[in-house]
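Structure request: Mannitol-specific phosphotransferase enzyme IIA component, Halobacillus andaensis.
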Amino acid sequence: MSENILTTNNIELNVGLSNKEEAIRFTGKILQDQGYVSSDYIDEMLKREELTSTFMGNQVAIPHGTEDAKKSVKETGISIVTVPDGVDFGDGNIVKLLIGIAGKGDDHLEVLSQIAIVCSEEENIDKILAADTKEDVLAIFNEVS
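Returned structure:
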């Protein structure tokens, strides 16, 4: 994965989040703080979640903005947040791994593809959730690119 798309600054481990909205806002704030998106992108992430859940299975959710949010994306980036206690994304779907996505142009397609490769293996998700350092998480994502 390209160096500027995911760095250790975009990763937060062992975060306590109480609900889905807080989880999405936290994930989006990382993208904003690292300069990938403007502040209104987070509202678009919440709108996307209202349209359809970003829960993907295997304890993973990939919050991202709506199509209208593209104007709020400055550059392609992802954020990764682990939540050991989990966050309920509705219908009993508990999320322990949040991967926030901001894709410039059509970049989100490649980013989604790489995320899918990593998250298709439950073993990788377990490794990410058990990671002691941000570098360990970064290494897992870099192995597939």
